[in-house]
Amino acid sequence: MLFVAAAHFYAGDFQAALDAADRLIRFRPDKSNAYRFKAAALAHLGRIEEANEALNMAYQVFAADF
Predict the structure, then answer these.
(1) pLDDT tens-digit profile of 3-27?
(2) How far is CA 5 from each of CA 28, 41, 42, 48, rounded to the nearest angstrom?
(3) Assuming Cys at both sites, which of 16, 33, 37, 40 could form a disulfide with 5, CB separation 3.0 to 4.6 Å?
(4) For residues 45 and 14, is the Cβ–Cβ distance under 8 A?
(5) pLDDT(66) > 90
(6) What CA–CA distance (Å, rounded) separates 23 from 1?
Protein backbone atom coordinates (compact mmCIF):
# COMPACT_ATOMS: atom_id res chain seq x y z
CA MET A 1 0.00 0.00 0.00
CA LEU A 2 2.93 2.33 0.57
CA PHE A 3 3.97 1.91 -3.06
CA VAL A 4 0.41 2.68 -4.16
CA ALA A 5 0.44 5.92 -2.15
CA ALA A 6 3.85 6.80 -3.57
CA ALA A 7 2.80 6.03 -7.15
CA HIS A 8 -0.29 8.22 -6.90
CA PHE A 9 1.70 10.99 -5.26
CA TYR A 10 4.43 11.05 -7.90
CA ALA A 11 1.79 10.85 -10.64
CA GLY A 12 0.24 14.01 -9.24
CA ASP A 13 -2.99 12.38 -8.07
CA PHE A 14 -2.80 13.77 -4.56
CA GLN A 15 -6.32 12.78 -3.49
CA ALA A 16 -5.65 9.15 -4.41
CA ALA A 17 -2.30 9.35 -2.59
CA LEU A 18 -4.06 10.69 0.49
CA ASP A 19 -6.67 7.91 0.32
CA ALA A 20 -3.97 5.24 0.00
CA ALA A 21 -1.95 6.73 2.85
CA ASP A 22 -5.04 6.79 5.07
CA ARG A 23 -5.73 3.12 4.26
CA LEU A 24 -2.15 2.22 5.08
CA ILE A 25 -2.29 4.11 8.37
CA ARG A 26 -5.46 2.22 9.33
CA PHE A 27 -3.93 -1.17 8.57
CA ARG A 28 -0.28 -0.51 9.47
CA PRO A 29 0.02 2.48 11.82
CA ASP A 30 3.66 1.52 12.43
CA LYS A 31 4.77 2.76 8.97
CA SER A 32 6.08 6.30 9.33
CA ASN A 33 6.32 6.89 5.57
CA ALA A 34 2.53 6.69 5.30
CA TYR A 35 2.27 9.78 7.50
CA ARG A 36 4.81 11.58 5.33
CA PHE A 37 2.89 10.86 2.14
CA LYS A 38 -0.32 11.87 3.88
CA ALA A 39 1.17 15.19 4.96
CA ALA A 40 2.68 15.87 1.53
CA ALA A 41 -0.56 15.01 -0.29
CA LEU A 42 -2.56 17.23 2.05
CA ALA A 43 -0.13 20.09 1.46
CA HIS A 44 -0.42 19.70 -2.32
CA LEU A 45 -4.19 19.76 -1.95
CA GLY A 46 -3.90 23.09 -0.11
CA ARG A 47 -4.93 21.61 3.23
CA ILE A 48 -1.96 23.03 5.10
CA GLU A 49 -3.33 22.85 8.65
CA GLU A 50 -4.21 19.18 8.22
CA ALA A 51 -0.78 18.52 6.72
CA ASN A 52 0.85 20.16 9.72
CA GLU A 53 -1.26 18.02 12.07
CA ALA A 54 -0.25 14.86 10.19
CA LEU A 55 3.43 15.77 10.45
CA ASN A 56 3.11 16.60 14.13
CA MET A 57 1.43 13.28 14.80
CA ALA A 58 4.10 11.42 12.87
CA TYR A 59 6.83 13.24 14.74
CA GLN A 60 5.29 12.40 18.10
CA VAL A 61 5.03 8.72 17.25
CA PHE A 62 8.18 8.31 15.14
CA ALA A 63 10.59 10.97 16.48
CA ALA A 64 13.61 8.75 15.79
CA ASP A 65 12.69 8.53 12.07
CA PHE A 66 12.76 12.30 11.63
Answers:
(1) 999 999 999 999 999 999 999 999 9
(2) 13, 9, 12, 19
(3) 37
(4) yes
(5) no
(6) 8
All structural domains of the chain with their residue ranges: 2-65
The amino acid at 58: A
Residue 58 CA to residue 13 CA, distance in Å, equals 22
Cβ contact 61:32 at 8 Å: yes
Cβ-contact 65, 34 below 8 angstroms? no
Which CATH number is 2-65 given? 1.25.40.10
pLDDT of amino acid 63: 75
Nearest to 5 by CA among 13, 17, 22, 14: 17
